[in-house]
Amino acid sequence: QKEVEQNSGPLSVPEGAIASLNCTYSDRVSQSFFWYRQYSGKSPELIMSIYSNGDKEDGRFTAQLNKASQYVSLLIRDSQPSDSATYLCAVNSLGTGGFKTIFGAGTRLFVKA
Amino acid sequence: EAGVTQFPSHSVIEKGQTVTLRCDPISGHDNLYWYRRVMGKEIKFLLHFVKESKQDESGMPNNRFLAERTGGTYSTLKVQPAELEDSGVYFCASSQDYSLTDTQYFGPGTRLTVL
Predict the structure, then answer these.
(1) Does B48 touch chain A (CB under 8 A)?
(2) Residue ranges of E strands in chain A
């Protein structure tokens, strides 16, 4: 079982719709969770971080965390063609050498104009 | 403020050759991380420096990989000798603090192709 799992997509949504991206993780002691956006050929860019159960909103983005279910999601409201990118879920977990950031393989999102 | 920079952006080498990748973190960031993404797979942690010291190198694939961070500024990652399976995108990231909640800023990556 992968440590951080995401549906690879592509997830295709029409412009103006809500895009819902999901991520599950296997390490119960994971403590912090991140969503990165990566355009093709570019570096991953942090768009949301969440550390406690519940919802966290920032503009059109909402991150949702459920530690009991080991599930984190990202909602993008009013999706725009410029949101088309790969979205990476990342989890920080404590290990023997400190903490590590573990990434999912990413979900490709395509927003149709 | 300049972001994380990496050099070169692309490198194409033959199997058995040596390649050195460079990363310049954001000024003042003590923490520097190397990651690798093999095509179709997830970004995987390689190692973490705090200043010039290796905090965690548990992700380094084998002893053909050598990372250094002289003086706690820029870092290099050398692959010697390169093998076909080393192909991928090598990302560097830096952060100011070492905490579970600190933001890591990524560089644009170096795309390595081993023929």
Answers:
(1) yes
(2) 4-6, 11-14, 19-25, 32-38, 45-50, 54-58, 61-66, 71-76, 85-95, 98-103, 107-112
Distance set, CA B112 to CA B61, B64, B71, B76, B83 (Å) = 15, 15, 26, 14, 11
Residues paired with B2 in a beta bridge: none
Q: Is B88 on the interface with A (CB under 8 A)?
A: no
Res B98: pLDDT: 81
User: In this predicted model, what pLDDT tens digit does every residue of A76-92 receive, in sequence order?
Assistant: 999 999 999 999 999 98
Q: Which of B40, B55, B101 sits opposite A98 (nearest CB)?
A: B55
Q: Report the gap between the CA of A38 and the closest CA in chain B (Å).
A: 10
